[in-house]
């Protein structure tokens, strides 16, 4: 059987052209199962078909004309007459609808129920749906013949013919934009099903661009006649069609200015539509602000001395400059209007009641997602939206939950109550999530810093089940999120490694994905040698494209897992030296030094650069960075280690109170290894060490480093030794021996 979309279009073409009667479709419709009926009823091309089906059936026996004016008149008279065939399905001249379609107005759930209900119940349902059907038929029949011909266009070619036939009225132009959007969407969807690389053939793309250009030209003339709601619909159409055509930013600016001051008059469900349209247009039109070219009076003075051909070329350049200036001015005006509309949107959404039925789960999710894409954060608006969202969390789909979590994370809006509700709902809905949705939800939960073991456990299980479908970026997102929240799952990391090594291949990963994935496995302490090998090979090949953060993360990760990779480290060191460590922050520098030392990678030139970069900012380093940096230079035994440790001593002594027991142990070991004795540093350490006796008592390696460092440096302190004796009974013998 044909697909649902094909069936809907078939009904539309037959009925809108008055080529068939309701009874002719009974055999076809009766074959549909309840699930297929739901899909059919949800299809956008079906509404007009149903309206026309009733219209043609009412006039089929009397031979009534299909002219728009006569149809409208007949509809009005039938609705006011108590004996009309419209109110009496059994009257002469009326042809009954196929039973499964009689519940169209009641929605998909009612349609499925009607298909299996007893005959008497089906008849009662048909009668209760008649008022709704009357309204829907009237909306369609009151359209002009031109508007109905636009609705009936089965292809872009047919729509292009209608658009180019005559100048369209404002309402018809908006309707044509809707039809263009729908045909464009259907063509793209069909291409995706056929797994084509291009969404549409080139001819179809050119035809769609031609129709869009013609409609834009017409709308530039008549847009002032449109009400605010039609302007919102137009913006939505343009956003879904890829933005305004080049050079038409002036129309965008005019439409946005036309909406200013009227956002508060829009219905609640139109607010997220406007926000989503602005978010989509922001990427294609609003951000592409063009600066006008600089004018030069000297060029005008010199124009008289040019040859005629040169003067003509200069005039053309001036005209192009004027056009560019006008476009830049329109872009600036559009951006300013968009910012003003955002403020109006945020004010309007705060007026919505939590009990409003027109602003439910879908609207809340779309609004938050749009605000996140726009990067516009209004604390008061988001606080009210969180109240609205809390009432609809249980009704949200997986996609809506994902949009809410990602939106809150991008906007950095931490509402503990709402986020907890979203996390609980996400845990329950996780079995129905796709791999991409699992990755996005995990990423958002990590950014929101939510401690929710249940949702991460459910996400791990679902990610393992869908690991074979994960895209490279989703693999890195999931690995990063679980590492940040310390949600350990051996099965998950095994599945992620298998996806990269056995299926995707490291070449499919972007450079920063390699860095992020290696860091995630190191953070979790998972040493998958096959993954580390392929990640290292890929990262070495693209080392010159890695950012400083990526370079330091890779070096730290391989050092943390004690996995030497000479080719990778050579390439990363070359990239760091080529940049002269420009762009490396304090943490990047210490991670780079520590990772090289941990894998015993020797590069005197790199360590010299590291020493030079850190000597001037020792007092800016954190205790953790100071401990790692001094340990790295001591362990690597590179030239200049003594000078660096001597320079680091005053900074370390000044912040000794913030050193942990392990950091202190590494610090003392480093100074003892290099042979640098600093009295102020040792005195500060002796004062803090007794306060760290609890953590040192459970760390034998740290105890050994402290004792060896104190003995090697020849430092004795009675109070310190008394404190150490509580956790190390033979401390005196160890220090003296």
UniProtKB/TrEMBL annotation:
A Pfam family it matches: RESC6
Sequence segments annotated as region (Disordered): 62-137, 286-328
GO cellular component term of the entry, any: ribonucleoprotein granule
Bias (Low complexity) ranges: 62-86, 105-127, 296-328
Domain RNA-editing substrate-binding complex 6 protein per the UniProt entry, residue ranges: 337-576
InterPro entries: FAST_kinase, RESC6_dom
A GO term for molecular function: RNA binding
One BP term from GO: mitochondrial RNA processing
PANTHER family in UniProt: FAST LEU-RICH DOMAIN-CONTAINING, LD45607P
Protein name, entry field: RNA-editing substrate-binding complex 6 protein domain-containing protein
């Amino acid at each position: 059987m044909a697909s649902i979309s094909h069936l809907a279009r078939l009904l539309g073409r037959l009925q809108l052209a008055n080529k068939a009667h309701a009874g002719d479709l009974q055999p076809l419709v009766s074959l549909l199962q309840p699930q297929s009926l739901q899909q059919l009823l949800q299809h956008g091309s079906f509404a007009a078909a149903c309206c026309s089906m009733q219209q043609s059936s009412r006039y089929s026996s009397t031979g009534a004309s299909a002219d728009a004016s006569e149809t409208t008149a007949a509809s009005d008279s039938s609705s006011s007459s108590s004996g009309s065939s419209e109110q009496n399905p059994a009257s002469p001249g009326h042809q009954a609808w196929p039973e499964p379609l009689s519940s169209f107005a009641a929605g998909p759930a009612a349609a499925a129920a009607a298909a299996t209900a007893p005959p008497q119940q089906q008849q009662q349902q048909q009668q209760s749906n008649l008022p709704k059907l009357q309204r829907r038929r009237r909306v369609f029949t009151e359209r002009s013949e031109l508007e109905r011909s636009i609705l009936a266009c089965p292809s872009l070619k047919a729509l292009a013919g209608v658009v180019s036939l005559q100048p369209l009225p404002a309402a018809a132009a908006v309707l044509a934009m809707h039809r263009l959007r729908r045909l464009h969407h259907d063509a793209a969807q069909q291409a995706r099903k056929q797994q084509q690389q291009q969404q549409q053939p080139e001819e179809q793309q050119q035809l769609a661009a031609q129709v869009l250009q013609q409609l834009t030209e017409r709308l530039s003339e008549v847009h002032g006649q449109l009400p605010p709601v039609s302007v919102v619909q137009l913006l939505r159409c343009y956003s879904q069609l890829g933005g305004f055509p080049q050079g038409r930013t002036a129309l965008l600016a005019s439409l946005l200015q036309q909406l200013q001051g009227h956002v508060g008059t829009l219905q609640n469900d139109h607010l997220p539509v406007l926000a989503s349209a602005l978010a989509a247009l922001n990427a294609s039109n609003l951000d592409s602000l063009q600066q006008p070219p600089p004018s030069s009076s000297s060029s005008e003075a010199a124009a008289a001395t040019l040859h005629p051909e040169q003067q003509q070329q200069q005039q053309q350049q001036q005209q192009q400059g004027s056009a560019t200036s006008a476009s830049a001015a329109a872009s600036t005006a559009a951006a300013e209007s968009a910012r003003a509309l955002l403020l109006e949107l945020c004010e309007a959404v705060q007026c919505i009641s939590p009990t409003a039925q027109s602003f439910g789960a879908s609207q809340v999710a779309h609004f938050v997602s749009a605000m996140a894409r726009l990067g516009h954060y209004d604390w008061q608006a988001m606080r009210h939206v969180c109240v609205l969202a809390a009432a609809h969390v249980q009704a949200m789909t997986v996609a809506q939950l994902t949009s809410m979590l990602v939106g809150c994370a991008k906007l950095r809006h931490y509402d503990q109550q709402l986020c907890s509700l979203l996390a609980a709902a996400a845990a329950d809905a996780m079995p129905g999530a796709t791999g991409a949705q699992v990755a996005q939800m995990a990423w958002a939960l990590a950014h929101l810093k939510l401690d929710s073991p249940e949702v991460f456990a459910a996400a791990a299980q679902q990610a393992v089940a869908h690991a074979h479908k994960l895209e490279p970026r989703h693999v890195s997102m999931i690995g990063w999120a679980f590492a940040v929240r310390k949600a350990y799952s051996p099965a998950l990391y095994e599945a992620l490694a298998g996806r990269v090594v056995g299926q995707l291949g490291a070449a499919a990963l972007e450079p920063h994905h390699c860095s992020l994935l290696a860091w995630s496995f190191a953070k979790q302490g998972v040493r998958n040698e096959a993954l580390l090998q392929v990640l290292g090979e890929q990262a070495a090949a693209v080392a010159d494209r890695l950012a400083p953060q990526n370079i330091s993360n890779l070096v730290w990760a391989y050092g943390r897992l004690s996995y030497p990779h000479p080719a990778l480290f050579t390439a990363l060191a070359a990239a760091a030296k080529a940049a002269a460590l420009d762009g490396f922050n304090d943490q990047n520098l210490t991670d780079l030094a520590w990772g090289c030392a941990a894998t015993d990678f020797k590069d005197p030139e790199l360590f010299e650069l590291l020493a030079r970069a850190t000597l001037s900012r020792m007092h800016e380093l954190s205790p953790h960075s100071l401990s790692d940096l001094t340990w790295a230079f001591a362990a690597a035994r590179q030239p200049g280690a003594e000078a660096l440790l001597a320079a680091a001593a005053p900074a370390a002594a000044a912040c000794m109170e913030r050193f942990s027991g392990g950091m202190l142990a590494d610090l003392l070991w480093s100074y003892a290894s290099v042979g640098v004795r600093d009295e102020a540093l040792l005195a500060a350490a002796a004062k803090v060490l007794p306060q760290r006796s609890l953590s040192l008592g459970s760390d034998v390696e740290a105890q050994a480093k402290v004792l060896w460092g104190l003995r090697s440096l020849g430092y004795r302190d009675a109070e310190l030794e008394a404190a150490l004796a509580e956790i190390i009974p033979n401390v005196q013998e160890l220090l003296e021996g």
